[in-house]
Design a protein that fits this description.
The structure holds two protein chains of two kinds. By secondary structure, chain A is an alpha/beta fold. Chain A is 58% helix and 11% strand. In chain A, α3 (32-58) packs across α12. The longest helix of chain A has 27 residues, at 32-58. Chain B folds into two domains: 31-152 and 300-370, 3-Layer(aba) Sandwich (Rossmann fold); 155-294 and 383-400, 3-Layer(aba) Sandwich (Rossmann fold). In chain B, strands 7-6-8-9-10-13-14 form a seven-stranded mixed sheet, with helices on both faces. In chain B, α2 (45-64) runs parallel beside α11. Classes of the chains: A alpha/beta, B alpha/beta. The interface between A and B is medium-sized, with 33 and 36 residues.
Chain lengths: 589, 410
Amino acid sequence: MSPAGRKLPGPGFAILLFGIAYAVATAFVSNSYYQLIMTVVPVWAVMGLAWNLLSGYSGLVSFGHAAFFGLGAYFVALAQIHWGLTPWIGIPLAGVLGGIAGLVVGLPTFRLRGHYFALAMLAYPLALLYVFEWLGYQELTLPMQRETPILAMQFADHRVHAFIALGLMLSAMGLTSRLERARFGLSLVAIKQDEAAAEAAGIDTLRWKLKAIVLSGALAGVVGGFYAVVLLVVTPPAVFGMLVSAQALIVAMFGGVGTVWGPVIGAVVLVPLSEILHARLGNVIPGIQGVVYGIAIVAVILMAPEGVFWRVKDLLLRRGSKQTLTPDGPAAAKTPIADRPERADGKPVLQLRNVSKAFGGLKAVQDVSFEVANGEILGIIGPNGAGKTTLFNLLNGFIAPDQGEVRFEGRNIVGEKPYRICASGIGRTFQVVRPFRRMTVEQNVVVGAFVHSASDSEAQVIARAALVEVGLEAHARRLAGGLTNKELRLLELARALAGKPKLLLLDETLAGLGGGDVEEVIAVVRKLAAKGITIVIIEHTMPAMVRLVDRFIVLDHGAVLATGLPTEITRNPAVIDAYLGKRWRTEGA
Amino acid sequence: MNGITLRKTLGLVLAASLAIAAFGAAAQKKDIEVGLIAPMSGPWARQGQVMKVAADLAIDTINKQGGIKSLGGAKLKLSVFDAGDSVEKAKNAAQRMVADAPDLVGATGAYLSSFTLAVTEVTERAQLPVLTFSYSDLITSRGFKYVFQTSATGDQMAEASLPALMELAEKASGKRPKTVGVVMDNTAASVAFVKPIRSTQLERLGLKLVVDETFTPPLANATPLIQKVRSARPDILLLMPTAISDAKLLLEKMNEFGLGKGKLPTISNGAAILDPDLRSNMNVEQLEGVMSVVANWTTAAQKDMVEDFKKKTGEPWATQHFMTTYGDMFIFRAALEAAGKADRESVAQALRKMDLTNGPAAYFPGGRVKFDERGRREGATLLIVQWQNGVPLTVYPAKEALAAPAWPKQ
């Protein structure tokens, strides 16, 4: 994907090497107990990867992955017992079942966020545990197949199980690795870092989260089904128990969240460690293995809070080091600032009619009506608490108005979701900048570009162009978390720009900038206007605004106080009294 | 070249035969390894520890009595494998047992029936004979050849309980009960126990069900349940909690309502209501007279041995897992004596042929050690245990009883 990446062996190569090493090691293990361990390690690695696919990338912590695992296990067991279905078919079907379960669980549960989501997820396996006990499935055993052991996956040589488990793990790693670098991964990571900003950047957050939980549930279902074949005995606590969900979480957290290698590292270290401690100490000082295991996990978490993978990566290459685009990137073509096209047509792009919004007794926006003409730069000013940002939130769909209508290009957009509004052509930035801090500058902008690009490479091209537009192309590889305030403002502009907006809502884009920086950002805004993008800007910096905008709207107490040309507004006594004057008085005090 | 090769070959053969001879000699003196696979850590560790004490005591006794005589007085040696707290850990432990201890001739375990199911999946494939007191019917319904169930299975116990109780009641009080009440939780053990009683036995025994209540543990308040029992006034009450806290609540409430201390004959199922913890957590007098149906307990035959156990461990009494594990070691001794060979296949064959009414049979209710083709012990019966003066004592059947049942005369 990146020019530098082509020279280095890709992540697929590393996965392949690891797979070969694991397979060779497995082939040489003759002790059946160690063969079993070689089977169980990939099982928990896949379970960790399944958890990671949802929770690691999207940040929605699931305490309930045992639900999918258990359904898979019970499906394979019951299908074999009642219909004689071979696990070779049963396990893929368990994956389908897991995916469906993911959808069923996801639809209601994604209405919740944060801790509430985590707790709700906890309920599913607990409920299923009792359901399966109630159904009378306290203990199921997969019947021993003496005639057709291979059809039933009951191999005399346990290494075959280990190889199948390894195959599952490599597939899960390959899948995760592909998705991680594609639109899927970037969209989820954007959701993890700032769900509202992601939605405003045109990402259909619910759809991506559902895709993630379906895939995650399918993986967990497959591995649960396979586990039933390995364990041969299925009981509700063994497959729906807290330990199953916890194990998925622990291996991923230990190894590193949000990466292919994290859950694998976690499983490769923790599963054998726990087993060996159990085998060596379990008979000597019963229970001590749990203590040692716990201490080991606590120690690692203290030393590497984000997991082993990230710690090692930090040590090897300093993350966030200053990197610039490689020379073969698109040339930083500086387009001269063109004159603004005559906003000849003057057709309204945006029309608000009697829009009101109240939060309890507070009337944040009352009966606001105005129009924005095509190609216009409209400034919105007003004292703090006048309802300016609320107005923007109404426009981009974060909140719905209590009454009134908002027409964009003639279409009423009230009630549409933010990502839809973004897709139809309204981009926005935030009063407090909301970059995806753990992503690079380029990735931030790529996320914004997805909304109008069919392929990932197309998004890449759009993002590059947007970066060039705002002059950030030299910082493409830096982590957004390390940018200066001005660069962050430009980044937000670029992200909004990548969505190819017809109308840009800029919320205090100049706030907190020094004199020189203000000029630089204003130049960029002018350039965008020159390209024909209609701009609505909230700003307090009056001298800059007077030079920038075509027209002002003054809000006070949620209502329109005045509208007019800059010269009219600065002389309007009502405006001076409500906004400019008051401000001067507080400055004087 | 040829000569050298020949000489080398001869040398090798000589060395090899010497090694075999030496090994053979060592094997003669080698201890015979018997396995115990049970939870040594986690929530069931206490029970696992009791099983270990039982096996150690039995092996100590066997070795003191001269070991296995048909094998030149070879001594038994116990290897312990921790089944932990989950099915997965139990299965891993079983795999470790068959991989790391190839000389094992047999094993006993693994406490919970779900653990035993997983463990025997491994041992069956390794053709290692396993004795178990887990009572799930599933264990010996899978067509396995190397698992032997010493307890009556769940179904057998449920079938046999009510007729036995009738017999006991009639003998003790002189009249047959006519009405019965059921108060149970909805766990698997209770549900399985009551199923055959509800479906066929009540009718067959001419009993009328006058109160039938099921609750989900844990119980918050026992008053409504016991009120119903008091107004229905059954002749006997089947009271089946599986959590010790629920047993305490129910029994205390019964005493409050004047139904305790045997006034309403109360019978339970399993060892929960006989647990030492119950005695330390409630007024002992309120336990008086409560009975329970179990697969094994201290019987008249083992009074001395149990005294020894109590002295060594400080446990107030020997529960069913102690008794059975102790007896299992004597079954292995008998099998080894009969086989005359210390290998697992010979032991398995000896177990299949075994038919004893003496020796180890003393430790198992029914008094006979013979396994049917499924591996179930023939004639495995149940015991009825009753709280008397703060100690649960075996009261039925008469020949194994330590005390006479106290049944209130009405």
